[in-house]
Design goal:
Elements lengths: L4 E4 L5 E4 L4 E2 L5 E2 L7 E4 L14 H5 L10
Antiparallel strand pairs: 1-2, 2-5, 3-4
């Protein structure tokens, strides 16, 4: 398996690639489809399926185009 990678999508979620598990602050595991190669985590706060993205950022008008400063 490749090293995990997190991509910050313009006006959208964090796309996490190469992980098989997502845990909450208490160590409880969220159900993640093992056949998926990535998982999208919400960063707008409008999703009904926290912590996962459900596309609500589009309706909420979420805007963020973060860039690394190198």
């Amino acid at each position: 398996m490749a090293d995990p990678k997190i991509r910050v999508l313009d006006n959208g979620p964090l796309l996490v690639e190469g992980v098989t598990c997502v845990e909450d602050a208490e160590g409880n595991t969220f159900t993640v489809n093992p056949e998926k190669t990535s998982v999208a985590l919400c960063r707008c706060g409008a999703t009904a399926n926290r912590p996962f993205c459900d596309g609500a950022h589009k309706r909420a008008g979420f805007s963020a185009c973060d860039r690394a400063s190198g």
